[in-house]
Write a structure and sequence with these properties.
Largest sheet: 2 strands, antiparallel
Helix content: 40-55%
Shape: globular
Number of helices: 5
Radius of gyration: 18 Å
Strand content: under 5%
Order of helices and strands: HHEEHHH
Structural class: mainly alpha
Mean pLDDT: 81
Length: about 120
């Protein structure tokens, strides 16, 4: 991923307010520049290259077979066709993952609003 894309993503995330209700979260619109988003969609891996959240140990106590991901690891990227592999390798070495983790910690640091009592 180019530094221009990195900067765009960081700018969009950094300037998105934290929404407090019903729990702290952010909704980032147009997180990627349009041309990069088109390239990302053109390089989506085939379903056979994806794994469920349970398969990669992201959840415990069950699985969500419809929620598939591709970890950005050498092992996951290696079987992709060369052009797609090059695209995903460039994503994997990007600083965005580190920045996204910082944003997640920023959101996690916000305490959720106390429950609102229902009117009598």
């Amino acid at each position: 991923m180019s530094s221009a894309v990195d900067l765009h993503v960081l700018y969009r995330i950094g300037n998105t307010p934290i929404l407090e209700y019903p729990f702290p979260h952010i909704l980032v619109r147009d997180v990627f520049p349009e041309d990069f988003y088109r390239e990302l969609r053109a390089n989506l891996p085939e379903q056979g290259n994806l794994k469920s959240l349970g398969q990669i140990g992201r959840i415990q106590g069950g699985d969500y077979p419809a929620r598939l991901v591709m970890p950005l690891t050498r092992e996951s990227i290696a079987p992709l066709p060369p052009a797609k592999r090059a695209f995903w390798e460039s994503i994997a070495i990007s600083d965005i993952a580190v920045q996204a983790e910082a944003v997640a910690k920023r959101i996690a640091g916000k305490s959720p609003r106390p429950p609102v009592d229902e009117p009598a």
